[in-house]
Specification:
By secondary structure, the chain is mainly β. The protein is about 5% helix and about 45% strand.
């Protein structure tokens, strides 16, 4: 399958020396996991990137492809966790402003993906979803409700006509004397195809009005734009009309009332000034914590919002007031316009979590299935949601095991990389305070993880023995399930070098039928491991026992 925009993505990654250098130039297209030699341990280079198309139709909209940048890494002692994260960050910075040129140009609206351990490749992996947008072809025109010129103070309605018009968003901008001869966004992106321009004396002269449109799902840039010039003249009878007061159109809370204590709130004032004078805002709180008296909680500033985290003393009915002035009328002690709203703070408290632990008793072994369980409560009996994480030994990244769920437990299979300890964590929230990206309370615990180890290696019968005797060597380990044994022999019959006599097997014994060439001093060695693929000859502590045996 060939696709010019996918090729542009691969070219952008290859052309960046930082990204390309981190994977030794191993940047591919459609290198699916099953085609790429999934086990990175046997490759010279320990990292690679594959560019793929996840959904070319973008949900049936051909202008909105979704690409996958599949990053895999086993570089470093932590099996690639940190290195994979570094590659991900470099790619995000490279692609955030889009990629490609001309007909292959793609704007990027969103990049998402998590670094996770992939057991199939024994390494870390991140499948970044790159939501793209390719400019579509539209016809677009812009017309005013009155012909230019008009007197300053007139209201001019601008209407945009686009084809095709389905699913479009519009944005209107003005550049002229009233905006300091710079483009000013007057509306933001919305589905409304018109803009009411209330002109003022500051707009006297020549201005340009522009409309931009964008379509599709992964909106990231304008698809088309049109503009028109417009002239405003001095009002009849001369200029110099009196400066008008600013107007407040709304005071809005970030979350609807009522809310519990500890909730992060923000109150936003929307105001405008007929002459576009700079505005100052002051916020005042009246409520239980102020003894019913007005208290300035944010003094005059150019910021049109106030952040509030109510405490126990705020429980009850509160009034939030915003005052606005443009410095042309009222002094700092007064105001030109004001608005108020009532807001109720309830005594709802955040949930508490006492512990997070494993349901099973220790010791814990590699390849063992365990259940993470959290003990949390909510004073008001609200539904508590849980989210579980793990962090492996030597790693710095917390890996999410679940999304938010009402169930207070989850299953987890301890892995080789969890040895010799693993941290577990649980976030809790009741949905009345913190959002989905945060938590109301958390608890963390560290769990020791054991691996297969040998406690004894016993021969039957004991040494010494005559040749042509069958001897059984029985190994005993610290666990009995999901482990493998391997037996070695070194002696006269092996030219005094170690020989693998059994290969890895789950049977914990080996029979040796001695013959004449075994006469003399011998050594028998047993090794044990959870996963034969992870055996390391440099790490035999507790996993290997050797004994001497004499054949006469």
């Amino acid at each position: 399958m060939s696709h010019p925009h996918l090729q542009a993505l691969a070219d952008a990654l290859s052309a960046d020396t930082g990204v390309s250098g981190m994977v030794d130039g191993r940047i591919y297209k459609f290198r699916a996991l099953e085609q790429s030699g999934p086990d990175l341990r046997n490759t010279e280079h320990k990292s690679l990137i594959s560019c793929e198309v996840k959904d070319w139709e973008g949900g049936r909209i051909s202008s909105d492809p979704v690409f996958i940048v599949d990053i895999r890494s086993k570089n470093g002692p932590d099996h690639g966790a940190e290195y994979c994260s570094e590659i991900v960050q470099a790619i995000k910075e490279l692609l955030q402003d889009g990629f490609g040129q001309g007909e292959t140009a793609v704007a990027v609206s969103k990049i998402s993906g998590e670094v996770k351990f992939d057991k199939a490749i024994v390494a870390y992996r991140c499948c970044l979803e790159v939501h793209g947008h390719i400019k579509a072809n539209y016809t677009l025109s812009l017309s005013p409700s009155a012909e230019s010129p008009q007197e300053a103070g007139s209201k001019v309605v601008w209407i945009a006509s686009a084809s095709p018009a389905e699913g479009l968003q519009y944005r209107f901008l003005v550049n002229g004397p009233g905006t300091g001869d710079a483009w000013r966004d007057m509306t933001g992106w919305s589905a409304k195809n018109s803009f009411s321009w209330q002109t003022s004396e500051q707009d006297i002269g020549d201005s340009t009005v522009k409309v931009q449109i964008r379509g599709g799902r992964n909106r990231a840039a304008a698809d088309a734009e049109a503009s028109a010039d417009f002239t405003l003249t001095v009002p009849s009878g001369g200029g110099g009309g009196s400066n008008q007061l600013p107007v407040i159109t709304g005071l809005y809370p970030s979350l609807a009332s009522p809310r519990g204590i500890g909730t992060a709130l923000e109150f936003i004032c929307v105001a405008s000034d007929p002459e576009n004078d700079p505005l100052l805002y002051r916020f005042i709180l009246t409520g239980p914590a102020t003894d019913g008296k007005p208290k300035v909680v944010r003094d005059w500033s150019g910021r049109n919002s106030w952040s509030w985290v109510p405490a126990l003393a705020d429980v009850g009915e509160n009034t939030v007031e915003v005052q606005v002035r443009d410095t042309k009328h009222a002094s700092a002690g007064g105001f030109d316009e004001h608005a108020t709203l009532s807001y109720t703070i309830s005594p709802n408290t955040v949930p508490a979590i006492s512990s997070v632990s494993l349901e099973e008793s220790s010791p814990y072994f590699v390849d063992q299935k365990v259940h993470l369980i959290a003990h949390a409560s909510d004073a008001e009996g609200d539904l508590v949601l849980h989210k579980f994480f793990v962090k492996r030994s030597g790693a710095n990244l917390w890996e999410a095991l679940t999304e938010w769920q009402p169930r207070n437990w989850t299953e987890y299979n301890l892995q080789v990389l969890d040895y010799d300890s693993i941290d577990i964590r649980c976030w809790v929230r009741d949905g009345k305070h913190s959002g989905v990206e945060s938590y109301d309370a958390q608890a963390t615990a560290t769990i020791s993880v054991s691996r297969a180890s040998l406690s004894s290696l016993v021969p039957t019968p004991e040494s010494p023995q005559l040749k042509e005797t069958t001897i059984t060597f029985l190994a005993t380990a610290n666990k009995t399930a999901n482990i493998y044994y391997r037996f070695w022999l070194k002696g006269p019959g092996t030219a005094n070098v170690w020989r693998d006599m059994s290969g890895w097997k789950q049977q914990n014994s080996w029979e040796w039928r001695t013959i004449y060439c075994d006469v003399g001093s011998n050594q028998v060695k047993c090794q044990v491991v959870d996963d034969p693929e992870n055996w390391d000859d440099g790490d035999t502590t507790g996993r290997e026992l050797t004994l001497d045996y004499t054949i006469t």
